[in-house]
Amino acid sequence: MDHLQPYQGILPSVGKHCYLDPSAVLVGDIQIADEVSIWPLVAARGDVNTITIGARTNIQDGTVLHVTRKSQNNPQGNPLIIGEDVTVGHKCMLHGCTLGNRILVGMGAIIMDGAIIEDDVFIGAGSLVPPNKTFESGFLYVGNPAKKVRPLKEAEMAFLKQSAINYIDLKNDYLQE
């Protein structure tokens, strides 16, 4: 898999039953759990910090995953941590942030350094989550900057898990090709 590239001798680690599109580029200290799908043209650089992607998460086409380096003002830097059953829509930018479990990040959204997105959250397409913001579990957030709009409905909460299942099924189809 030449789309997995080392950085300073560290190669991405990939769990079982994952689909990594051949056009995706994954560099350095990246840990990918089981049943993850990484779709076309994803760029992930775990060079100056770490990237962790939880089980059953899908990272869709054209998304950029990156981190913040360690510095005197920020001794730990900001790794990128993505939880389980997360759907990251097309052309998103996730930079040194933390996402919990069962989150849907809408197409084109940007989540910046130090932001924390708790479990069971929808982030609307095109939204901008500013640095160091915490988004509370169970809500829809939209806008630039993104703001809490309303609690998630029961059907939306169920869809968070269903979206991950849909991408597991699709990934499995691709693995059989």
TrEMBL record:
Which organism does this sequence originate in? Litorilituus sediminis
Q: Would you tell me the protein name for this molecule?
A: Gamma carbonic anhydrase family protein
In terms of InterPro entries, this protein maps to:
Hexapep, LbH_gamma_CA-like, Transf_Hexapept/Carb_Anhydrase, Trimer_LpxA-like_sf
